[in-house]
Specification:
287 residues; eight-stranded mixed beta sheet; 8 strands
Length: 287
Amino acid sequence: MKPRHPALLAVFAHPDDELFHGGILAHLAERGARVQLLCMTHGEAGRVKDPALEGADLPRLRTEELRLSCERLGIDPPVILDFHDSGRLDHFRRDDARALANTDLLEAESAVRAVIGRVKPQVILTHDPHGGYLHPDHLATHRVVTAAFFSSGVMGDEAPDRLVYGTLALDVARVFVSHDRGPARGLDPEVMGVADSTIAYAFDARPYMDRKLAALAAHRSQFGLTLETLDNPPPPRAEMLRAFRPVFEREVFMLGGSRGALPSWPMKDLFEGLAVTAAGDGALQGT
């Protein structure tokens, strides 16, 4: 198989979902890979956390926040599809036929397949089977992207080689779900987290924490933070950052699918063993 330039396609449901995996995205882009983010919705069901932004055109605002986040991570500008944010719990939009969780999943799969055809990634990253914390849009995105990975086999040599899911290590899940105000509160960490033996690849994102926090601050409507307030956030925001830190510092991935044998377990790199051209300083371990 002729080596191709390394490319990763990350597919998430909403603006700000990229934050938990921002370290590996920034790292791969820094090493010369193309890193393309595909967002399924504009995140219009989000709740505005900054009073100064109340009344804003939320889909437009969140789109711009996502573009700024990608810029701060050093990855390509995002591609955003036009499915609607479904919301969750008491705010679930059951009557919106265009809400991602309600839409025809084959239509959504076709839209993702079209982007796969344009980007031609060797690696695809998306939500894990539990959607992180059972968000209906995360679950729908997981199903759609998994289906698109397997149906894209008709692309032959240009089909993606590897599908990975961003997830939580069990020890981190135990801490994360215990946070009183977190989205995973009340969930069973033994279900939501994964044991070490299930982790296909782990990435130490601590060298990228400043970049990840800057990307978080780009999503001002959702987190109520700016670059200026990161160093001394108000108490509720400081508590949130403390809860996020263990999730942010170590990014872990499960294997969702592969079109070839893995050279090692766990993997040394998401591109390990794949036919990619040299990129950056050799941090991508292709063939």
